[in-house]
Specification:
By secondary structure, the chain is α/β, with parallel strands linked by helices. It is built from eight helices and seven strands; from the N terminus they run βαβαβαβαβαβαααβ. Bound molecules: nicotinamide-adenine-dinucleotide. The site of nicotinamide-adenine-dinucleotide (NAD) has 28 residues, from helix 1, strand 2 and helix 6.
Length: 256
């Protein structure tokens, strides 16, 4: 990988885990670009992180992804790291009651988005002499997840995509890994827990207790824990790590 400050692109970097990743890379001295679909969050990012870059882009839209890379990479100067973070929770519903539109939207953002961004990034990573792609999967990428089938299918898909791409890009010294977070503290997990509580007829407090009990460590994950893993994978400590699905999930044993 090229010497000097890393040039990093984080998708869906204006909030949640993506913002934690952007901040951690910036704190490590990297120059960071993010994209997001939330204009207010993009404006807040501009204000919070001057000197870094933010673009409007829906990762499931081929033309928008092409524009993102055309704009961001020249501004960054080169590209060393792509963090494919964008992903939505999708519907909380039994498969037999689910619309095809809900299924397709989850796959389009969570899986097509990673494909589109990785495909656009590869020539730039190669031009930089190597680099890293980090794909956000989930504990739902190693377990079944009832009432969340499109999410689980997309996150298992991320692992298959990661392992295949790592084999294609190894000769170019481009490393490709997936991070599998457990339940990460923040607004999204509160929404997920509330939806699951409603779908199964239990209280939010009971569903929160069930979520934390899924992990041996018995607690939710901090977004900064995911961010530190991403920075490690992109740095010298990760130079011989590729094709891996790395859990940061407090030793999650199942998903309910
Ligand atoms: N939060 C968790 O508990 C958890 C657990 C495991 C895996 N993950 C994965 O981590 C990643 C980030 O999760 P999060 O909880 O921070 O998400 P989040 O729901 O908090 O959303 C983060 C950002 O994604 C943006 N976004 C949504 N759709 C987009 C699109 N099509 N294109 C670009 N940006 C878009 C949103 O505007 C938001 O700013 C996802 O891939 C998610 O599946 C999250």
């Amino acid at each position: 990988m090229t010497e000097g400050a890393l040039r990093v692109l984080v998708t869906a970097g204006a909030a949640g885990i993506g913002l934690a990743i952007a901040r951690e890379f910036a704190a490590a001295g990297a120059r960071v670009a993010i994209c997001d679909v939330d204009d207010a969050a993009l404006a807040a990012f501009h204000a919070d992180m001057p000197g870094h870059l933010a673009y409007a882009c829906d990762v499931s839209d081929e033309d928008q992804v092409a524009d993102l890379f055309a704009d961001a990479v020249p501004e960054l100067g080169r590209l060393d790291v792509l963090v494919n973070n964008a992903g939505i929770a999708g519907p909380t519903s039994l498969v037999e009651e689910m619309s095809l539109d809900d299924w397709r939207k989850t796959l389009a953002i969570n899986l097509d988005g990673q494909f589109l961004c990785a495909r656009a990034a590869i020539p730039h990573l190669r031009a930089a002499g190597g680099g890293a792609i980090i794909n956000l999967s989930s504990a739902a990428g190693k377990f079944g997840f009832p009432r969340r089938a499109p999410y689980a299918a997309s996150k298992w898909g991320v692992v298959g995509f990661t392992k295949s791409l790592a084999m294609e890009l190894g000769p170019d010294d481009i490393r490709v890994n997936a991070i599998l977070p457990g339940a990460v503290d923040g607004p999204r997990i509160q929404r997920v827990i509330a939806a699951k509580a409603q779908a199964t007829g239990v209280s939010i407090a009971e569903m929160t207790a069930r979520y934390t009990a899924q992990a041996s460590l018995g607690r939710l994950i901090d977004p900064a824990d995911i961010a530190r893993m991403a920075v490690f994978l992109a740095g010298p400590g990760g130079r011989n790590i590729s094709g891996q699905a790395l859990s940061v999930d407090g030793d999650t044993q199942s998903l309910i």
